[in-house]
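Below is our example:

___
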Amino acid sequence: MLRNLIVVCLSFAVLGCAFTPKVARLPPGQATEADVIAAAGPPFRRWAEPGGGETLEYPTQPFGISCLMVRLDASGRLVSVEDALSPLGLAQVQPGMSKEDVARTLGRHRSVEFFALSGEEVWDWNVDNSTGPGVATLFNVHFRDDVVVRTSQTYVFPPDADFF
């Protein structure tokens, strides 16, 4: 079962990368919202920006490891393309942030778990595992009373791994 999940995750990660270069090659200041949508398709969600611009969200969760945030200015011209799940993006999540702040920062999450004993709701995202142990890395955001209390990482290992 886990082996099949790993194959699916890798497949979606590769597919997610298929549109990334097209969007990343668009020239900032010249490309328009129509160019972005032609390259990447319709966004999952749109976020309003101060000053009239907006950010288009392109998540690859639950199987991929990126979430492109494509920023447009008030006239609909491309400003930047950033991966919200890069180390810099993950570092932006801080205690005290709201769920909306986290969704705005990292994009759509992979899954949600509630832990009754700690009273925490935990959202997670697949992130790059190129330097981590195991076969996958999850970035976890822990909420209590709808605000971030901490973050953590979980490493996924194959079920037949012999650690003892």
Notes: The chain has a mean pLDDT of 87. The first strand starts at residue 45 and ends at 48. The chain has two domains: 2-83, 95-156. Residues 2-24 form the longest helix (23 residues).
